[in-house]
Amino acid sequence: MKRRLTLHFPREAVHQPITYRLAVDFDVAAKILRAQVAPNQVGTMVVELSGDIDELDAAESWLELQGLGINRALGEIRIDSDRCVDCGICSSVCPSGALRFDPAEQRLRFESPRCLVCEQCIPSCPLDAIALLLDPEPVLR
Ligand code: SF4
Ligand code: SF4
What we know:
By secondary structure, this protein is an alpha+beta fold. It folds into two domains: about 1-70, ACT domain (Alpha-Beta Plaits), CATH 3.30.70.260; about 75-135, Alpha-Beta Plaits, CATH 3.30.70.20. It has two helices and eight strands; from the N terminus they run E-H-E-E-H-E-E-E-E-E. The strands form three sheets. The protein has a four-stranded antiparallel β-sheet. It has a two-stranded antiparallel sheet with strand order 5-8. Helix 1 (about 20-25) packs across helix 2 (about 55-65). The longest helix is centred in the middle third of the chain and has 13 residues, at about 55-65. About 20% of the residues are buried.
């Protein structure tokens, strides 16, 4: 199974070879979706962990023992249609295809079920039309 987490590194944990230890000690593969970790500073990393459920639980416990903060509430990406001008820039950084530019319609398409909540699209938008809602209200249709 897969699990997406946001990891917050304290300064003293930044140098740890986290993905290596997860693979070797827990048989958990870690795919880094986004990372902002500078030497000797606190950092944040969004990872997708793959393994069986017991290994994932053990790996999470180990991460917490190393002093890392774990955020399991990933939230939801929302596009502000009043701000968006359908330029398509954000679709070029989206690793999952959740954001796609439709050339026929000249429109941005967003398929939220495909979204990994990696947040890479947020800084790419020149109009601040993309936001992460941490406690999203259900969308009424
Ligand atoms: S957060 Fe943005 S860039 Fe990342 S998968 Fe979702 S839509 Fe794509
Ligand atoms: S980068 Fe911003 S304005 Fe351009 S398509 Fe994406 S959300 Fe819309």
